[in-house]
């Protein structure tokens, strides 16, 4: 169920348009606390992207257990580390796909993870050796 009472076909169109607008705003105007790229950050991002359409935006899927949430947090930390250390595209792609496969949210998982990845890439730490 969506907040606007739209049919499935109309919802998909509106969702895509809102997503484009919101994801562009992140690049240009919106920032979140970037001290920690954790599950709370991911929830805020999902709520920002999909909160105009879905009542449960920003909420972890109820089918996930506490152990799943710990796994998600570990995968998010590993993804950030891989990006910061230039681990290689194949490793990063695998880590992203694993996060998408968990289906953290009821809607918009792939797009939320994609935006999250973009944010991580733009805010990559530069380590000195």
Jot down its keywords.
129 residues, mainly alpha
Short précis:
The chain has 129 residues and is mainly alpha-helical. The protein is 62% helix and 0% strand.
Q: Pick out the low-confidence regions.
A: none
User: Helix count, per DSSP?
Assistant: 5
The percent range for helix content is 55-70%
Please state the structural category.
mainly alpha
Distance between the termini: 51 Å
| Morphology | globular
The succession of helices and strands, N to C, reads: HHHHH
What is the residue-mean pLDDT, rounded to a whole number? 89
Largest sheet entry: none
Number of strands: 0
As a percent range, the share of strand residues is under 5%
Q: What is the radius of gyration computed over CA atoms, rounded to a whole number of angstroms? A: 15 Å
Structure description:
It is built from five helices and no strands. The radius of gyration is 15 Å and the shape is globular. By secondary structure, the chain is mainly alpha-helical. The relative contact order is 0.15. It has helices at residues 8-28, 39-50, 66-84, 89-102, 109-122. Helix content is 62%, strand content 0%. The longest helix has 21 residues, at 8-28. Helix 3 (66-84) runs antiparallel to helix 4.
